[in-house]
Amino acid sequence: MDESTGRVRVLKIIAAHDVGRALNPAKIEGQLEGGCLQGQGYALTEQYRVKQGMHLTRNLGQCRIPTIKDVPDIEFVIVEDPEPNGPLGAKGIGEIAMIPVTPAIVNAIYDAVGVRITDLPATPDRILEALKKKSPQRLVP
């Protein structure tokens, strides 16, 4: 987190998820990686803008979906607790992996600089504005 610019860079995510029985660990890691990146995008960059019913975001490129350059180091912890009602004891793992990532990133911003971002994405402009409100006398370029 760079307080002078408001930029946030996620360096590492530890993704621990109960997958039931891990039938294909490599595919599970792929789902976890995708979910983590979705959560990161939702937290920091992705935004679909609408104003007075008009779509200002015209395509997915304007949404600022994370790219390969944005992928942090991700450590996977696959927890196996077989689900008696799931197929062969497995559980779904798709988009569920994204759920804890967004609040973890927003809480990390709070831990780093002491401002709570409540309107997502946590863009540099929003972070700098929150820092100004926290310390009005502070000079932020």
Give an account of the 3D structure.
A hairpin with a 2-residue loop joins strand 2 and strand 3. It is globular, with a radius of gyration of 18 Å. The strands form two sheets. It has a two-stranded parallel sheet. The protein has a two-stranded antiparallel sheet with strand order 2-3. The mean pLDDT is 91. It is α+β, with helices and mostly antiparallel strands. The chain contains three helices and four strands. It has helices at residues 25-44, 101-113, 124-134; strands at 12-18, 50-51, 54-55, 73-79. Helix 1 packs across helix 2. The longest helix has 20 residues, at 25-44. The protein has a domain at 12-103: Aldehyde oxidase/xanthine dehydrogenase, molybdopterin binding domain (Aldehyde Oxidoreductase, domain 4, 2-Layer Sandwich), CATH 3.30.365.10.
Task: Describe this structure in a few short sentences.
The chain contains three helices and four strands, in the order βαβββαα. The protein starts with 11 loop residues before the first strand and ends in a 7-residue tail after the last helix. The longest helix has 20 residues, at 25-44.
Distance between the termini: 15 Å
Q: Report the sheet-strand fraction.
A: 5-15%
Say which CATH homologous superfamily of the domain at 12-103 is assigned: Aldehyde oxidase/xanthine dehydrogenase, molybdopterin binding domain
Indicate the CATH class of the domain at 12-103: Alpha Beta
CATH-scheme architecture of the domain at 12-103: 2-Layer Sandwich
Number of helices, where a helix is a run of at least 4 consecutive DSSP H or I residues: 3
| Category by helix and strand content | alpha+beta
Rg, nearest Å: 18 Å
Instruction: Assign an overall shape.
Output: globular
Reported for the largest beta sheet, the result is: 2 strands, parallel
Fraction of residues in helix? 25-40%
Mean pLDDT: 91
CATH topology of the domain at 12-103: Aldehyde Oxidoreductase, domain 4
Oligomer type: single chain
State the order of secondary-structure elements, H for helix, E for strand: EHEEEHH
Q: Unreliable segments (pLDDT under 50, ≥5 consecutive)?
A: none
Spatial strand arrangement across the major sheet = 1-4
Number of strands: 4
